[in-house]
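Handoff note, outgoing to incoming analyst
You'll be picking up this chain. Sequence as last confirmed:
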Amino acid sequence: MYKKQVKDKDYIPNYIPTKKRIEKLILIIVLLAYGGYGLFKGELYLAYRQGEVTLYGNAIYIAFSALIVGIAYLALGIIDHYDKRNNEHVYRRFEAILKGFAVLILLTAIFANYISTIK
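Most recent structure output, in case you need it:
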């Protein structure tokens, strides 16, 4: 699926503008601070298009792990800029895996929160 697209001799490394890298770094810091604040307060508020969810208890820790995976996803974009090797296919594959894993963990947190509120 993700294969090397360009021969090594024709390869030009990725260039990610400084503004984009700074935006990703700021988003990483904000996500880490928001998740840490949620852990500290004992509740984590998540808003999305159709509504909102507030997580409590163990669901917060599960959601925080999803935030950590999301942070790793964002960090890969920054790391890729500095990696001059012809391996963008590896980064794309790893980003796809991280994105799917983060969504799966977040859905697990929402489900765990739902189960704990039923009891």
